[in-house]
Design brief:
Radius of gyration: 25 Å
Strand content: 25-35%
Shape: globular
Distance between the termini: 82 Å
Structural class: alpha+beta
Strand order of the largest sheet: 14-17-12-19-22
Helix content: 10-25%
Number of helices: 9
Largest sheet: 5 strands, antiparallel
Low-confidence stretches: 1-24
Length: 399
């Protein structure tokens, strides 16, 4: 190989590496629909969107996609756009249309840099394309890894398991946004199957800033009624003073019979840390909402009030690691552990928070304690070795 050929080869390799690094640092936001089509048209301008959703949209997007709220791509509507760019957003004026008014649009932005990498989850690969396609859906991932996923990601990245960005493949993608997740359907490809993909999400900064977090006991502030079941954060703090935090960073819901909310088939009006949980009967199809209970993940300021020492009575050499509240209360005198803790923390012996491990946790709440079962771990591996500590009511520390 000549010197000039060698130089050209290195330039090509370096440019490919730079492109790959840039591609891997890009992420997509959720869809935004701030304005409705009116007499003047539809406005989804970046300045307006950032004013309302500033933590969820980067300041300098590198790309933008737009489609109608019914899912028709903007290039297929026939509308003429006054503004259509990543730096400006979308503006469609009825006065500039030739034969039909503006549609009602939603927009999604592609971001790069610190916005994508600031508070990022690990990669998740829940599905593969051997069936109908590859579905890496946020609701499924939150159900499987509730402590590793924030309730409302601000961005998503997708690549094949070999590291190729999804945007570089020739697959037709059904969904790719932070609010839903990712979906590629085999039937929509031309005579082939989708690639096998993995995803990771960017979460709000506060999700990563909390180095210590604890989980409350399960609380049920409302019973299923003619209207439904509402477990709002505001009402829970009033019903259970001192037992739940007013600024949770995570929430999980299940029925009083122990069925995860995602498995009930109910449609939820709200299921997030901003409001809490709400299931309304009139939104269901021929059925009533179940009776739900929730547990909240709270930041460190709530956890530190009246805290016990760390307890470690078991290890995963047998069936798993069990640090149950009943077991600990039997082993330790009443002065060492309160009878009704308001929160629990669990970390590995190396200090890694339980929600940041890959373990599937069977029990993790202040009412019951902690349990990780070896048989439930993927790949035939064992649970980590954990220790736990509890937050007790303030009067426990005053005794």
């Amino acid at each position: 190989m000549s010197a000039s050929q060698s130089f050209a080869t290195w330039c090509l390799l370096l440019s490919n590496l730079c492109f790959l690094a840039t591609a891997l640092d890009t992420c997509r936001t959720a869809w935004f629909d701030e304005g409705d089509a009116s007499g003047d048209g539809d406005s989804e301008l970046l300045t307006d969107l950032r004013r309302t959703h500033w933590p969820r949209i980067c300041s300098s997007p590198v790309d933008m996609e737009a489609e109608t709220v019914s899912g028709v791509k903007s290039q297929h509507t026939g509308n003429i756009f006054h503004t259509y760019s990543a730096t400006g957003g979308l503006l469609c004026l009825n006065s500039e249309q030739t034969w039909r008014p503006c549609e009602d649009y939603k927009v999604m932005f592609t971001c790069t840099g610190q916005f994508c990498s600031g508070c990022r989850t690990r990669w998740f690969d829940h599905d593969d394309p051997t069936g109908n396609g590859d579905y890496e859906v946020l609701s499924d991932l939150r159900e499987m890894y509730p402590r590793e996923m924030c309730p409302r990601p601000i961005a998503i990245e997708v690549q094949t398991v070999s590291g190729e960005p999804a945007s570089n493949t020739s697959d037709a993608l059904l969904s790719y946004d932070a609010a839903y997740g990712f979906a590629c359907v085999n039937a929509e490809q031309r005579g082939r199957s989708c690639e096998d993909y993995r995803v990771r999400f960017t979460c709000p900064e506060e999700f990563c800033q909390v180095s210590e977090q604890c989980r409350t006991r399960w609380v049920n502030g409302d019973n299923s009624s003619d209207e439904g079941d509402v477990e709002s954060i505001h009402q829970l703090t009033r019903t259970f003073p001192g037992q739940v935090c007013g600024n949770p960073i995570g929430i999980e819901a299940k029925t009083t019979a122990g069925i995860s909310a995602e498995h009930t088939g109910d449609t939820f009006l709200s299921y997030d840390v901003t409001f809490g949980f709400a299931c309304i009967n009139e939104k269901q199809r021929g059925k009533r909402c179940e009776d739900y209970q929730v547990t909240l993940t709270c930041p460190s300021d709530f956890c530190q009030g009246c805290r016990t020492r760390w307890f470690d009575v078991d290890d995963p050499t047998g069936e798993g690691d069990y640090e149950t509240l009943l077991q600990l209360q039997m082993l330790y005198a009443p002065g060492r552990l309160c009878t009704q803790p308001v929160a629990i923390e669990a970390v590995t012996l190396a200090g890694v928070p339980a929600h940041k491990t890959d373990d599937v946790l069977q029990v993790y709440d202040a009412t019951s304690g902690f349990a990780c079962v070896n048989a439930e771990q993927p790949g035939g591996r064992r649970c980590h070795d954990y220790k736990v500590r509890f937050t007790c009511p303030l009067d426990f520390c005053k005794e």
